[in-house]
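Dear Dr. H.,

I hope your travels went smoothly. While you were away I took the liberty of generating a structure for the chain from your last submission, since the lab meeting agenda had it listed for discussion. I wanted you to have the full record in hand beforehand rather than looking at slides cold. The sequence, exactly as received, is reproduced here:
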Amino acid sequence: MISKLPLLAAFLICLGLVTLSACAGRKTSSGISAKADSGYYPLRNFLEGQVRKLYGLPITVERVAWEGGRFDSSLLPTMYLDWSEVIPAFMKADISAPEFLGKYQFSNVEDNLTATRTYTYTATRPDLFTRTLQIHTDMLDYHIKALYIETKASNFWKSTSQKLLCIPGNIIQIQESSNPLIGSVSRRRLEYRFPRESSDNVHIEE
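The corresponding predicted structure, in token form, is as follows:
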């Protein structure tokens, strides 16, 4: 079987270059709290951490896909996961670039019962691609417990919406619905399901 290590390295380099261009000319403070409050938290930190920490772990991930009434399921070691089919969707929803500042309503809610602090960004304009971004963090150490995103893109011919979910060491999920001007609505869902015990082995560097 051909190793995907070169592909992983190339993908991480590409991921870094894409975000570097978006972040050029500004500085971000360390810590999820400061970044979330300023609106500059870059998703690249979280996404790159996911890939690096999961790659090579001795676990098998279940890849499940639904599209057009078809269902497909397979089991893959982490080193053979095709990250290019999930990471770009999250990167496209990133709102850390300076031009997004002031275009989202920000809220910060604490749940003492679950020891979770949730940072929510809600679009204030209908033309913004990312409609909602939620970052659920641990109240004590600010590590990300879950990431949830809703997006929507519309033109004359088609309207496409997405729901993206990432729970470290548990699941990565992409749901997409497309409503064309002519024809029926199409839906697809892709999931990477991680074994329950893997959540104890994954620690995300922020």
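Two observations you may find useful: Residues 169 and 197 are 8 Å apart (CA to CA). Residues 5-23 form the longest helix (19 residues).

With kind regards,
E. W.
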